[in-house]
Amino acid sequence: MESQTCSSCNEDLTEGARCTVCNQSLHYHCAGITEGGYRKLGDRKHTWRCHRCRQLSVGAAQLPSSPRSPISESDSAILMEIRALSAKFTSLEGLKDEMSALRNEFADLKSSFQTQFDDMAKKFGVKIENMEQRILHLEKVQGQVEELRAKLDRMDDETESREQWLRSNNVEIKGIPQSLNENLFEMVTKIGQKINYPISKTQINFISRVPTREKDHIKPIIVGFCNRYVKEDFIAAARYESKSTTLIASHIGLPGKNKIFINDHLTLRNKMLLSKTKKAAAETDFRYVWVKHAKIHARKTDTSPVITVKTEKDLGKIV
Predict the structure, then answer these.
(1) Is the pTM of this model over 0.85?
(2) Which residue from 90, 250, 253, 272 lies 20 to 30 Å from 71 (Cα-Cα)?
(3) Nearest Cα to 91, choosing from 15, 178, 32?
(4) What is the set of domains in the chain, with CATH numbers?
């Protein structure tokens, strides 16, 4: 389109809508239509009319057919209102066309997306199904692993309980210095005399020193009694004696002032649990931690309930 002026605003115009009646050109906004709407008119551009021509055609259509029928003032006002409404609806025609074109574009876009989605579903459907099956398989395997872990934990607890039960007749004596050609039975006999609980050979099943992991490297002595009740009475007598006098090496005729400790023969796991219990008790102001019948007990005060510590989970009770 050559450079000219808009018939509505008289400003320069390089591109716009052309009226097919008056053959005048207007800016799109002056013509009451968008550029996209005008372009989508297609062949209907050849019948498009500007506002002025539409109003003239409406006015001509509503003029009285005979000069003998004059227009009253009220009819003239109604006619003006009709013309004004006609001018307003004129701009809506182009908008209607534009909305129709957008609706078609949206339908095409929706169809395109649906096609792409169907293609993706076909392409990845098998892979997704395989992944879901693998996930279900992994969940099943995980459940089996958890069951096996629980079973192993139960077996471990049962093994620990059995091992501790096998030591139920044993006493562990720590602090007695080692020497060549030492007589362990004689040492135990002297301890029995010191704590007022005499011991005879017929009451002892075995007696021996065993390796230790402690830093002093003094191997403890394990005494296996033939009767568990004898073992319990022996430990009780030793603890009663320790309330008044600390048992040391010189009390049984040995040199030095090493303290002698007499306790239940605990498994390695229970020894570690006892150490952790003492640490937790010290951090939470528990006054008492002791072992009785090879079981670990803790108590905060003289009147507090007694807590039995069987596993590390029970340490949570020491608060």
Answers:
(1) no
(2) 90
(3) 32
(4) 4-63+72-112 (3.30.40), 170-317 (no CATH)
